[in-house]
UniProtKB/TrEMBL annotation:
Keywords: DNA-binding, Phosphoprotein, Transcription, Transcription regulation
Entry keyword annotation includes Phosphoprotein: yes
4-aspartylphosphate: residues carrying this PTM: D54
Native organism taxonomy: Bacteria, Bacillati, Actinomycetota, Actinomycetes, Pseudonocardiales
Organism from which the protein derives: Amycolatopsis rubida
CDD domains, alphabetized: LuxR_C_like (cd06170), REC_NarL-like (cd17535)
Protein name, as recorded: Response regulator transcription factor
Cited PANTHER family: TRANSCRIPTIONAL REGULATORY PROTEIN NARL-RELATED, TWO-COMPONENT RESPONSE REGULATOR
Cross-referenced InterPro entries: CheY-like_superfamily (IPR011006), NreC/VraR/RcsB-like_REC (IPR058245), Sig_transdc_resp-reg_C-effctor (IPR016032), Sig_transdc_resp-reg_receiver (IPR001789), Tscrpt_reg_LuxR_C (IPR000792), WalR-like (IPR039420)
PROSITE patterns assigned: HTH_LUXR_1, HTH_LUXR_2, RESPONSE_REGULATORY
Pfam families xrefs: GerE, Response_reg
All residue ranges annotated as the HTH luxR-type domain in the record: 146-211
GO BP terms: phosphorelay signal transduction system; regulation of DNA-templated transcription
A single MF term (Gene Ontology): DNA binding
Amino acid sequence: MIRVVVVDDQELMRVGFRMVLGAQADIDVVGEAGDGAQAVRMAAELRPDVVLMDVRMPVLDGVEATKQIVAAGTARVLVMTTFDLDEYVYAALQGGASGFLLKDTQPDYLVSALRSVADGDAVMSPSVTRRLLDRFVGSGGSEMRDPAELDVLTDREREVLVLIAKGMSNVEIAETLFLSEATVKTHVGRILSKLDLRDRVQAVVLAYETGLTRPGIG
């Protein structure tokens, strides 16, 4: 059973998320919060698997709440956003969020994404990822890092990292490189370990910040 806390300052949104998620046999919405401070307290108390986090909220916004929850190790965080909040989402990713979705995401995709995050993966929408990184990594929204950080990777691992940065799943990477999914998982694990990264989200950010790939390429 995946235990979830839903965080949004709009009650109607919380009700909608609860209805969608509560209809799943393997998901239990164990709590709701209307602001970031309440979310941090609830995550510490309930220890859910995933916090579904809004960004703009009173008392404490979703970015700071995400940082505190991730730092405390109480749950993984999946951020919900809209296009006009790009800068907040990038900050949330840097703060440890395991991914982000748009609020108009289809219910079945939301459920699938939440399961992926609960399973330890990260949710990256290719189109939104490119938009974010084009605006913030590609145009000075984040400091560039030394490409030498990637020297620990093999050529194959670099190839895999580029495809991760494009938002590809393990299955898609396997098809592109003519590898088995198990082999791709092994490569991804080694990439995260060698670069001391928590998950695919951090891998995507690092790929752009080191110039391994650039927005709009591929």
